[in-house]
Amino acid sequence: MELLSYKYPHPSAEDYTHYLPSMGLPEESATEMPRLYSKQRDEQGSIYVRRLDDIKLLKYLYNFNNPVKEVEIFLLAHTPLITLLFETDKYIKQIFGENRAEVWLEIVIDPEEDFEGMFAVVKTNTSPKKSLDLLDQFYEEWFLDNVPSEINSIFYVTARPI
User: Over the chain, what is the mean pLDDT?
Assistant: First the structure.
């Protein structure tokens, strides 16, 4: 399979620095991440393995509402979404701030409607009105301008007060 032999560069410590605080890890651990990351990779450094590793990192940013294998299959079928989820997390945190309790990824499949998609559900600790205002702000300030149309049809962000 051609995909498995494609060389992908090893990530550096700088690649991890942005995401470590959101994973609850100190920035100093960025120097360890490339070593740990490369340990998990196969000899060829395949992009497939890199994508699986990225999905594992997403578990530190999001809660999965579906079994991990189901999320992996969905994301491997829609690989541009993997990178977008890292960016989405950054902007959810920026816009929702302290109002964000947690974020869940949920895959919804409705064969009757011929629909398959992923929702990032931002659970908030604020009123329904404030949650919707923040969601509108998120869409206006980032989502609508940065999410490509091929992803926009399968990926949605919603807010749910808890």
Answer: 79
